Amino acid sequence: MAQYKCISCGKVIESDNPCACDVCGYNMFEMPYNRSDILRGEISKFLLALRLTKDEPIPVSYYRTVLKIQDGKDIEETVQKEKDDKRFPSIAEIQKYVCSAEKIEVFCERLERSLEQINKHIHTPYKQNYKGDTSVSADKIETFDTTLNNALQKLDINVEPAEVVLPEIKLDYNETPDSVLINYADELLSLLDDLVIKVKKFIKQNNIYGTAYQKKHSTETKLKENEGWPDLFERIIKDVKTALNKNYVVDIFSDGSDELDDMLKTVWKGTGILLNAPVLSAKHSYLIGSTVADELSFGEAFVNFGHSR
Q1: DSSP secondary structure string, 99-154?
Q2: Domain carrying residue 101
Q3: Does any domain span residue 151?
């Protein structure tokens, strides 16, 4: 067992591992050691940790401004990109809306209308230009500057750190239908339309008017190992075709809810992948100062801007 001494108050203990002082909370180091060397080493590690690397997430939020007329005056309103990203309802919101119908006829109408809107959504390109807000990064740098200045004063180092100037960032954001996945989506949508028609006929023929349709089925289908989105689409399409070809018969001991449940489970699984898969492919093009970058080169371009000043 080694002896460890607190770098601050000097307390000595025996321990098998490096630890913190239970008196003042500072680190304890194995004896013997040179206190000056330890302090310099700790300060160096602290300063190195302040360096910005290209792999470090850059806290930037994106927004756009729109003009609105209020009381006869033009008012500039800020719209965050996060809000635009949610411009179309999530699959959870759609399912909640459809399944909240109090009548089965209304349920079917809502389901059909939702599939129509999803079809329109995934075929509609989307484009917006945003400005980057680096205020969070600026606040973080200001905190680091204060800490750094205090450390330099303690070491009697008279150096005035240069003021950090963050670049102006612009984002050109585009969503377009993926050239491969859109074909799978179209096939799946067509099959789902047929399956919904089959559900309606099944309900009418068997006089099913309970609330089994309100059950919220899972809308998630996970990718298997070594499986891509086209593979998953093919798997779901196969399930929908199986449901379409299956002959659902209600016997005298059943109310038809199990058969209806089986079909709706497939409907929701198919609807879920339409919104969970990247059918609309997103492309980010950044302008950082005067440098154009994409998602992969954004961090490097941001860091290089700082080094060039």
Answers
A1: HT-SSHHHHHHHHHHHHHHHHHHHTS-EEEEEEEE-HHHHHHHHHHHHHHHHHHHH
A2: 88-124+178-278
A3: no
